[in-house]
Design brief:
Helices cover 81% and strands 2% of the residues. With 179 residues, it is an all-alpha fold. Helix 1 (2-22) packs antiparallel against helix 2 (24-30) and helix 4 packs antiparallel against helix 5 (120-153). It is globular.
Length: 179
């Protein structure tokens, strides 16, 4: 549930940055307090419905199988599809959307900074631009590395320590570093 909210909130944050850069005159009306609350409630609702569907309706419970240190979905054909398409592919799409929106925002800010005058205000804008670049790049690297280690590399783990590092530790690190 929390991971789903996290993924959707990252997409929302990138959409927010994109509109702040490309539509500054309509930004305040698009991202008013009311609209922002509706957006937050909508992705909490989507996460609740998706989690309830996966865990309760089609019974893809998450467990810690005996002898492993990996929380995983129940091993059935439908649950493997939920894990691959409902988790891995969805988050890859989230990362791609965030990367494209952030890249567009950074390029627009870069273009706007080169057209402007070079004074203290423009130096501050460049500093903010670089912070945005670093934040977006690190965010994408963290999420992509977690997806690769958890979904692609972990099946090749030779023992429970490797599996634990590639899944549980990787998942905790991405969320710990994301803050």
């Amino acid at each position: 549930f929390s991971f789903q909210i996290c993924g959707m909130s990252h997409v929302s944050i990138s959409v927010n940055r994109f509109f702040a850069v490309y539509a500054p005159l309509t930004y305040t009306s698009l991202f008013s307090k009311r609209n922002t609350r509706v957006l937050i409630c909508s992705y909490w609702t989507v996460a609740a419905v998706g989690t309830t569907y996966a865990l309760k309706i089609i019974d893809c419970t998450v467990s810690l199988p005996h002898g492993t240190w990996i929380f995983t979905f129940k091993y059935t054909a439908i649950c493997q599809q939920v894990q691959w398409y409902g988790e891995f592919i969805k988050y890859v799409v989230y990362v791609v959307i965030v990367a494209m929106l952030d890249f567009s925002s950074v390029m627009r800010l870069h273009y706007m900074n080169h057209r402007g005058v070079h004074d203290l205000a423009s130096a501050q804008r460049r500093s903010c631009l670089m912070n945005l670049v670093y934040q977006a790049a690190l965010q994408g690297i963290f999420f992509t590395s977690e997806l690769i280690t958890y979904f692609i590399l972990s099946p090749y783990a030779r023992n429970k320590w490797e599996a634990f590092l590639l899944t549980t530790v990787s998942w905790c690190l991405v969320h710990g570093m994301d803050g």
